[in-house]
Write a structure and sequence with these properties.
The protein is α/β, with parallel strands linked by helices. The protein is about 40% helix and about 20% strand. It contains five helices and six strands, in the order ββαβαβαβαβα.
């Protein structure tokens, strides 16, 4: 049985494999998705496009920093951090040794950059809380 729409769906477009998990996000699900990204076969780069995790309360900054740090530790090739917490995520990833980190304030700004960054052979994880509107990223990568 396939995964429900926007929940850990894998699809391909123009030679790029996309791990689409845009329905919801918290620190645990982000880390699990990053581990899945690490474990998928990949001829190119592993790119994580990560947006805000909603409803984290007073732990929001720490949660986003943990995701950034773990992105580096799990050997993501490029991190695209999007949203209100992008700077926290990006700074933690850089501090942990990830060199290719790009930050955007909103999905619209990130869409063009991501479309111009991905190449055949890459595997791209797109994940954020539903409130982040990452279905627009998914649609853009599909060509919609």
């Amino acid at each position: 049985m396939p995964a429900p729409k926007m929940r850990l769906q894998i699809w391909e477009t123009s030679g790029v494999s996309v791990l689409d998990d845009t329905y919801n996000a918290n620190a645990d699900s982000m880390l699990a998705a990053l581990e899945t990204l690490r474990d998928l076969p990949c001829a190119g780069r592993r790119i994580a496009v990560l947006g805000d995790m909603a409803e984290q309360g007073e732990h929001a900054a720490d949660a986003h920093r943990e995701v950034g740090r773990r992105s580096a530790e799990l050997r993501v090739g490029c991190l695209v951090a999007v949203g209100r917490w992008a700077a926290e995520t990006g700074q933690a990833a850089r501090a942990a040794g990830l060199q290719e980190v790009i930050e955007f304030a909103d999905v619209e700004s990130a869409v063009k950059a991501v479309k111009n960054t991905v190449r055949p052979g890459d595997v791209v994880l797109i994940k954020a809380s539903r409130a982040a509107g990452f279905e627009r990223m998914s649609a853009a990568l599909r060509g919609g």
